[in-house]
């Protein structure tokens, strides 16, 4: 029967290192299969990217907006009507501050 020291020596020659006995190595986590591709397949790619690519191949970009863009534009418009919207470009706090 081989001793633990002899086995460790052979392991070191084969694998290049001796495993630390009283430390977690993370092998259990690394042996699990990767779930990234399955999660990526679960969520469908948004249509606006593929639609924009299709229109760009023809060299024409229609006035195409997604629901998310429309919602954002409506929200910004409502805020501007209340006087709480973002300032025009170059008219912010730093630009109006006196030197």
Automatic annotation (TrEMBL):
InterPro entries in UniProt: Ribosomal_mS33
Annotated segments matching region Disordered: 77-99
One Gene Ontology term, aspect cellular component: ribonucleoprotein complex
Composition skew (Basic residues), residue ranges: 81-99
Keywords (A to Z) from UniProt: Mitochondrion, Ribonucleoprotein, Ribosomal protein
Main location: mitochondrion
Species whose genome carries this gene: Ditylum brightwellii
Name of the protein described by the UniProt record: Small ribosomal subunit protein mS33
Lineage: Eukaryota, Sar, Stramenopiles, Ochrophyta, Bacillariophyta
Location of this chain's protein in the cell: Mitochondrion
Similarity comment: family membership: Belongs to the mitochondrion-specific ribosomal protein mS33 family.
Pfam families in the record: MRP-S33 (PF08293)
